[in-house]
Amino acid sequence: MLTIHHLENSRSQRILWLLEELGVDYGIKTYKRDKATSLAPPELTAIHPLGKSPIVTDGDTTVAESGAIIEYLVQKFDDGSLLPAAGSRERQAYTYWLHYAEGSFMPLMIVSLITGRIENSPVPFFLRPVTRRIAAKVRSGYLDPNVQRHLRFMDNTLGKSTWFCGDELTAADIQMSFAVEAAEVRTNLSAEFPNLRRFLEQMRARPAYQTALKKGGPYALPGAR
Ligand SMILES: N[C@@H](CCC(=O)N[C@@H](CS)C(=O)NCC(=O)O)C(=O)O
């Protein structure tokens, strides 16, 4: 049976959503984060050397990396509903957003998470102005302008169609779901970005998303501030 190696409160939640949309029979092996460090437990490295989640095992095949897992599952199980037709404009958009989520946007969310940790780290009081200053410099000089540009870009895209690649849900939207959820907790997704808010609402309204949440257990992403 196909197994998803699912780390609690993590991007593997979107693979559960995809599996539910596809109607695939699968098993879940859940892993808990270390309470102090939030890192994945060492057992995951027995499944894949990097020890990150998601990982899917299917017979003697092991697939890691969300985008690669999505491609594997769509190729194997999709009947054409979550993958736009080859050669279409929607397909080009699909390839773009499938890569963009982890390739361009998530690195910014990781920098945001780390910057927040530096800001809030328990350092001796005389060092606090220094760590705060470093964090503020990263935010003003790099993070904030880049994040704003990306949020505007994503929001503008969703201003032109219901989903990222057109008016139908695709597996690239499922890949993007975690990116937008991370933005929700790590940035001010203010009224300035109404289409991103609508995206979150419409994906959360899908029965498959809700079933995946029930199966995956508690799901809360750490914020940055
Ligand atoms: N680009 C990879 C990222 C994998 C990743 O960093 N997963 C996180 C979960 S959100 C993880 O396993 N973190 C625990 C750790 O680093 O120990 C993917 O999309 O699969």
Architecture overview:
This protein is of the alpha+beta class. The chain has helices at 12-22, 66-77, 89-120, 128-160, 171-186, 194-204, 207-216, and strands at 2-7, 26-31, 55-58, 61-64. It has a four-stranded mixed beta sheet, with helices on one face. Helix 5 (171-186) packs across helix 6. The chain is globular, with a radius of gyration of 18 Å. The model has no long low-confidence stretch (mean pLDDT 95).
Short recap of the structure:
By secondary structure, this protein is α+β, with helices and mostly antiparallel strands.
List keywords for this structure.
single chain, 225 residues, alpha+beta, four-stranded mixed β-sheet, 7 helices, 4 strands
Topology, element by element:
Layout: E1 2-7, H1 12-22, E2 26-31, E3 55-58, E4 61-64, H2 66-77, H3 89-120, H4 128-160, H5 171-186, H6 194-204, H7 207-216
Parallel strand pairs: 1-2
Antiparallel strand pairs: 1-3, 3-4
Helix pairs in contact: 1-2, 1-5, 1-7, 3-4, 3-5, 4-6, 5-6
Bound molecules: glutathione (GSH).
What sort of overall outline do the alpha carbons produce when their principal axes are compared?
Answer: globular
- Order of adjacent strands in the largest pleated sheet: 2-1-3-4
Classify the secondary structure makeup into a structural class: alpha+beta
Question: How many strands in all?
Answer: 4
Mean pLDDT: 95
Radius of gyration: 18 Å
Order of helices and strands: EHEEEHHHHHH
Largest sheet at a glance? 4 strands, mixed
